[in-house]
Amino acid sequence: MRQAYMTESGHGSAEDPRPGSRIRALLDRLRRDPGIWRRGVVLAVVAAATGLLMVLHAQIPNRIGNVGSLTETFLPWLGLLVPVLLVLALLRRSATALVALLVPAIVWLNLFGGLLTDKSGGGEVLTVATHNVNAENTDPEGTAREVAASGADVVALEELTGDAVPAYEKALASQYRYHSVQGTVGLWSKYPMSDTRPVDIQLGWVRAMRSTVATPSGDLSVYVAHLPSVRVKMNAGFTASQRDTSADALGEAIARDPVGRVVLLGDLNGTMNDRALNAVTSQMRSTQGAAGDGFGFSWPASFPMARIDQIMVKGVEPVSSWTLPRTASDHLPIAAGIRL
């Protein structure tokens, strides 16, 4: 004989304990709540504004303090507002706020959801790595060994000082037969290098270089660059004019490169979302965006909030991309696998 089990509600009536019944009861209570659509209007406005800010970030002007580029640098972090607003909307029991919250949630997923999945592939690849080692690094040899431990075939280092270069050369000599240091940037390779020269990025001193690396799969043009730093100043906002000029010059050099396959390694002091890097990003692909797992934030090393260190490619296929363990630098090293 089948017997139905019921529980007594606080009013003495029978209530079905099954989850579906509880959800229906909750929805019934919400429908009977006359203020459910009137509460949380401010939360709804904030949610909608957040979504619009992400959609229209390219329209934010750079004329005053480069606020557009500043917003784009940290654009993924706007997604943190979604769970905060969700909790507040639930506490306020506001249907209006919950519906409005769909706007920033959908926009954020459309912009960055693809970065949350692992897109790495297989096959024979060339591994490249880059690291801003920090001019004040107190352990250059240890830093070099950490980067080399990635197994990279080609390694780029930025922010090299004259005093520290011998230490990096000594630490990497056993694994990398070929190398060149140009100004404050250097390139180490397991394969022969030719046509190595500085690249003028309009600074007056050398902070960029290029070289043709003869890999087993053919020639690859490798650029190493350290674009000027940006600053956030109270009286001037996001000051980045020198960085922007250098990015334009670097983009022009890459566009003129005679080798069809190009990889760019370095600290660009800007993210892929930053419009100021369009001269470079418009013609190249980010390995992290194409084949990485997660955002791959690289700076600051103590609490990474942005990926300003980049590996970009043109004419080759990104296979994987990742960050390497922390060194004595204030940046994390990054690496990528590419198929020529």
User: SS-based structural class?
Assistant: alpha+beta
| Separate helix tally | 11
Strand order across the largest sheet: 5-6-4-3-16-15
Distance between the termini: 72 Å
CATH topology grouping of the largest domain: Deoxyribonuclease I, Chain A
- Overall shape: it is elongated
Q: Kindly estimate the percentage of residues that lie in beta strands according to DSSP.
A: 15-25%
CATH architecture of the largest domain: 4-Layer Sandwich
Mean pLDDT, all residues: 88
**Would you identify the CATH H-level superfamily of the largest domain?**
Endonuclease/exonuclease/phosphatase
- Cα-based radius of gyration, to the nearest Å: 26 Å
CATH class of the largest domain: Alpha Beta
**Total number of distinct structural domains:** 2
The arrangement of helices and strands along the chain is EEHHHHHHEHEHEEEEEEEHEHEHEEE
Q: Helicity level, as a percent range? A: 25-40%
Number of strands: 16
Task: Give structural notes.
Its cofactor is Mn(2+); Mg(2+). The chain crosses the membrane at residues 36-54, 74-91, 98-116. Pfam families: Exo_endo_phos (PF03372). This protein has 340 residues and is of the alpha+beta class. It is 31% helix and 24% strand. The chain has eleven helices and 16 strands. It has a six-stranded mixed β-sheet. It has a six-stranded mixed β-sheet with strand order 7-8-9-12-14-13. Strands 1-2 form a two-stranded antiparallel ribbon. The protein is elongated and about 75 Å long. The chain starts with 6 loop residues before the first strand and ends with a strand. Mean pLDDT is 88; it is low at 1-14.
